[in-house]
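G., the chain you wanted modeled:
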Amino acid sequence: MEALRWGTIPDSAPHTHKEIAEWCDQFWCHFMDVDAPAEIDLLLPILADVDVQWDLFLANTYTFEQLRVLNLNDVRLPVEWFEDWLRQAHLKSGP
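Predicted structure as tokens:
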């Protein structure tokens, strides 16, 4: 959940939204074919959503030519999305 929190503070976070989306994808891929512990299994759909929304945001916001030259580390998803994912994660993980 720390990675999601970083997404809510892009100016001071140690990782970019691109790096967070990539981490979410790698984490999800690591656990998709194994029996993950219950607390991780509950978070996997959220992590997958972060990665999917990153790709959709890029596709819907930039042209192919822009994407060819764009520094993806400068791209930011709406902070509200990370706030929502963090809320969902807290609800799923319980008190």
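The chain has a mean pLDDT of 92.

Shout if anything looks off.
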